[in-house]
């Protein structure tokens, strides 16, 4: 995709995106779902799609992104991530934070279909590869390697909070909310944020409008949007929250 095409993209509006609204297109041993594409306050390109690889599917074609950073989240199944010839296994809720210019491929190595989200983005500011290297470069994190810390309303697992090649700050964690409680009072921040539902049911107020989401859905909150989330069910709910600037 060229810079001229990026320039034609429209701002992504705050709101909710529902998994069941994403049309699945089958091509051989995999399905793809286009979810969003546009620009945001800090990014001149932001896209999100989901891919499902069948059992025994060929790995994705190895490639490197010249000036695009990626965040990959495993929804279901077991993935082998190959980075420059070295393999790492990620299970459900595993995360790959991939810096630009690294050769990589993704493969289903489990005995069930593999489904994962891919978020691709490029900053409006100049890319800083060395900043990414200094903060750890490409990261691969499984949920069971994180530490669950109880809170007054549930618990949280921190994945990372660091600068990257494209972001002055990229922070990611998983929150669990007890039944019928809010995470916090409605608030605002300079970072753009996505909340991706893992399980349960929630309601989110965004700039005075209420949206609802369940597993597979996600909320998008632009920079300085007023927002607050609560668990609306009688069971705990769990979700990814990640934000950037």
TrEMBL record:
Molecular function GO labels: metal ion binding
Domain Cupin type-2: 55-119, 176-240
CDD domains named among the record's database cross-references: cupin_XRE_C
Keyword vocabulary terms for this entry: Metal-binding
UniProt KW Transit peptide keyword: no
Superkingdom of the organism of origin: Bacteria
Protein name from the UniProt record: Cupin domain-containing protein
């Amino acid at each position: 995709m060229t810079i001229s095409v990026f320039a034609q993209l429209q701002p992504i509006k705050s709101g909710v995106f529902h998994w069941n609204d994403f049309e699945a297109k089958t091509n051989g041993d995999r399905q793809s779902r286009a979810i969003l594409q546009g620009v945001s306050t800090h990014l001149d390109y932001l896209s999100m799609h989901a891919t499902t690889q069948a059992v025994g599917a060929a790995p994705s074609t190895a490639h490197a992104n010249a000036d695009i950073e990626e965040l990959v989240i495993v929804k279901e199944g077991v993935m082998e991530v190959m980075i420059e010839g070295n393999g790492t296994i990620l299970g459900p809720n595993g995360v790959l934070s991939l810096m630009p210019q690294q050769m990589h491929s993704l493969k289903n190595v489990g005995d069930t279909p593999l489904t994962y989200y891919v978020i691709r983005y490029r900053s409006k500011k100049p890319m800083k590869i060395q900043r990414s290297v200094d903060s750890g470069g490409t990261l691969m994190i499984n949920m069971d390697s994180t530490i669950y810390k109880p809170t007054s309303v549930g618990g949280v697992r921190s994945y990372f909070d660091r600068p990257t090649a494209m972001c002055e700050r990229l922070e990611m964690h998983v929150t669990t909310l007890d039944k019928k409680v809010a995470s916090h009072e409605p608030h605002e921040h300079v970072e753009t944020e996505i909340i991706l539902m893992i399980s349960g049911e929630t309601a989110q107020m965004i700039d005075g409008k209420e949206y609802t989401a369940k597993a597979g859905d996600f909320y998008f909150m632009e920079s300085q949007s007023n927002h607050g989330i609560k668990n609306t069910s009688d069971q705990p709910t769990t979700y990814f929250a990640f934000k950037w600037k």
